Structure formats: structure tokens, C-alpha cells
Amino acid sequence: GAVVSQHPSWVICKSGTSVKIECRSLDFQATTMFWYRQFPKQSLMLMATSNEGSKATYEQGVEKDKFLINHASLTLSTLTVTSAHPEDSSFYICSARTSGRAEGLSYTQYFGPGTRLTVL
Amino acid sequence: QKEVEQNSGPLSVPEGAIASLNCTYSDRGSQSFFWYRQYSGKSPELIMFIYSNGDKEDGRFTAQLNKASQYVSLLIRDSQPSDSATYLCAVYSSASKIIFGSGTRLSIRP
Q1: What are the backbone dihedrals phi and psi of residue B82, each rounded to the nearest 5 degrees, phi first?
Q2: Looking at chain B, which residue has its C-alpha nearest residue A107?
Q3: How many CB atoms lie within 10 A of CB A46?
Q4: Where would a tag sit more exposed on chain B, N or C end, judged by fewer CB atoms within 10 A?
């Protein structure tokens, strides 16, 4: 299957600082990438959808000025958590969608390994 | 009504038995369906996808799709303790988005 990497795998930062998380599709081109957040024992929550070369589309309730997304190339998307606070501590997971169509139908979405953010 | 519904569980199955996970979806125009496995503290991993009505088998896993009933299931034969995880059903909807269910927690007891 397709491989998606994320860096860093974990990060601890002080309140008020900004953190950048990178998401790369290693062996395929991803015109669309997704950013999710997951709190302990809760389900995935889609934060935003990013398309290469255009502005990200944010889900309702997600602050676009706080969670900056840049999808600069077909293999790289970044999420920057600006002025992080303890309530931003979570597991952030990116996902990349293949553009190929299998069996004449839709796309498949592959997940990165996730980044665990802890804000002190 | 949620777009993709799953029983949250936990579903407890004895080792060696068949685990049956179910999912229903609301968008009749949905085209394809996915099952992901998520271990605690890890990100989801794609197990199977299915597009056509009927069964699709891959090793110990069988996905079943019934578009008329808007129902998709995952069977795990010869369940192993390592199968204990949360299983996410996902649907590629007519709005060109993949919608995830909230997951079913499966526990395989030795």
C-alpha cells in the first residue's frame, strides 16, 4: 500500500509557541491531504482538507488562523499549530488520498503514523 | 442520523472464533467502502476496501457489502489477540468525501 510519513512523531512544547508538523506521501502523489485530530478514547475528528496549490478547507469550529495548513507540493502538506495551548494537546494525524481509481471507482485514503503534541 | 454508524462496543470474542463487525451508512449514492484498524495510540491502518455488492476475502478478513440495505460488514475468522483494536468503517460518499464511523472496539479474549 501507499506510504505516508509524518514528522515529528511526538513533540513537547511550551504554551504560546508554534509547532509545525510535516506530512509526506512517499511513493505517490497526493493532490488532497487531510488533517485529523484525535483525543484519547475518542474518534477521529477531521480538521481540514488541503488541496495542492490552493487554500485549505476547514471544518466547522476549527480556527483557520490557529491551525495553518500549507500544501505546497503533491507530496508535502504542513500543519502549524500557532500559539499552542494545553488544550491543543492531542494526537494529530494526516492522511493522503491517492488519485488513482481502483476498479473504476473511488480513491483510497492512507494515514500517516501521527504526531503526539503535548503543550505544557 | 449519523452518516456512518457503528456500534461502539466493546465487542468481546473468544480467541479462534469469528468476529463480526457491522456498519450502516445513510448516503445511498456512496460508492466505495473501507475498513481500517486502529491500535491504541496508533493511527488507522487500511485493512480492506470493497466496491461491489457481495463478499470480498483477503486472508482471515472478509468484507461484505449490501448496497440495497446500505450495510457493510467485516468478518475476522480465527480471531487472534492481536486483532484486538478499534475498527473504523469508512464510506466514500456522493459528496466526494470519505466519512468515517466512530469505530467499534474489538477485544479478543484468550
Answers
A1: -70, -10
A2: B92
A3: 17
A4: N
pLDDT at residue A101, as a whole number = 54
Contacts of A60 (CB under 8 A, 6+ apart): none
What's the gap in Å between the CA of A87 and the closest CA on chain B?
18
Is the CB of residue B95 less than 8 Å away from at least one CB of chain A? no
**Among B63, B69, B64, B73, CA closest to B21:** B73
SS3 state of residue A13: strand
Taking only the tens place, the pLDDT of each residue in B89-108 is: 999 888 778 889 999 999 99
C-alpha cell at A27: 511513493
Nearest residue, CB atoms, B43 vs list A43, A105, A111: A111
Is the pLDDT assigned to residue A99 strictly greater than 70? no
